[in-house]
Amino acid sequence: MRKHHSSINARNKKTPGFIITGDGISDDFYSLLQAQNIRLKRVLFLADKKTFQIGGDKVIKTLRAKKILVIKKSISKSDIKTVERVEQLIRKIKPDGLIGFGGGKVLDVAKICAGKNNIKFISIPTILSNDGIASPVSVITDKHGIPISHLTRPPYGIIIDYSIIKKAPLRHLRAGVGDLISNLSAVYDCRLGFRVKKEKISPEILALAEAGAKRLLEIKHKNIKSKEFLECLCDGLLKSGLAMCLVGSSRPSSGSEHKISHSLDYLFPPRRTLHGEQVGIATIFTMALQKNRFLSAVRRLCRKINFPQKISYLGISENDFVNIVLNAKKIRPERYTILETKKLNKKEIKDIIRKLNL
Predict the structure, then answer these.
(1) Which domains are delineated in the chain?
(2) pLDDT tens string 282-295
(3) What is the pLDDT of residues 186-202, one digit of tens each?
(4) What is the pTM of this model?
(5) Phi, psi dihedrals of residue 187, rounded to the nearest 5°
(6) How far is 164 from 167, CA to CA, in rounded Å?
């Protein structure tokens, strides 16, 4: 079993207390908690049907063998109703720890419920489809099927087992790449805002937010499931999440490309495409607007890993995308981006789409 351990100052509640990554480490979950001086007696364990099967039940077995009471709760959605049901369960069983084992939906519900109820939340991601694994943001779907971002506390601890991540569908890992490269657009927008005194984020935090994406652009491997690629993707998404933790908002990792993705969510719900796919495709458009120096390298990476680069992949027409872009300025108007500097008309947007062959 190979372990790599990196720890972040646990006294700083803005960031996770610890992050542990390695191969096969979830088999040793109890020992990992002991090493972090975490003593749990009553645990609420959240996963979905599939993630219980691929490793969740195994982790529960190791905890129960150590006489820890574990209450299992299977969830299938990250909507308001699910959050309410989990909160009711928390009030009933009064756990001293909450473990989330799964993808974004499971972790978003676990994160917001733990934050609201002041419980230690240990996150065990099974996929790397976005930077929510370390961020203080939970995305919960409202009653209209629209995903809404909620600011909460980041996980107390994060355990990433590459032997589990390798089993994730390629599509979800590609979406993780899309979410990570979108930071190159978001950071450009932050610096734009900084120059006109509409942004105060420190250059160091912005450098942290884009570091992983820049490193990913240089990777030689085509195989996303290779050790080198997965470690690079994981490291980048963690850095992105930490940048958000330090700022206390999603701003370092969310700019014009996220406004376009949110506009798509609002105008065309419910969505079947993944968040990382949406922001990845939007990033190609916003980078062209920005004349971003990383655009050609981003497109090369997309080709290399077969990341979708067509608007049609989103299930919308060219005209739909035009309206989505025009509506995007209304999303989070306080965030200054390249969209705020341009008065784009329909023809100009169509010209850019066609030039990019989107």
Answers:
(1) 2-165 (3.40.50.1970), 170-356 (1.20.1090.10)
(2) 999 999 999 999 99
(3) 999 999 999 999 999 99
(4) 0.93
(5) -65, -40
(6) 6
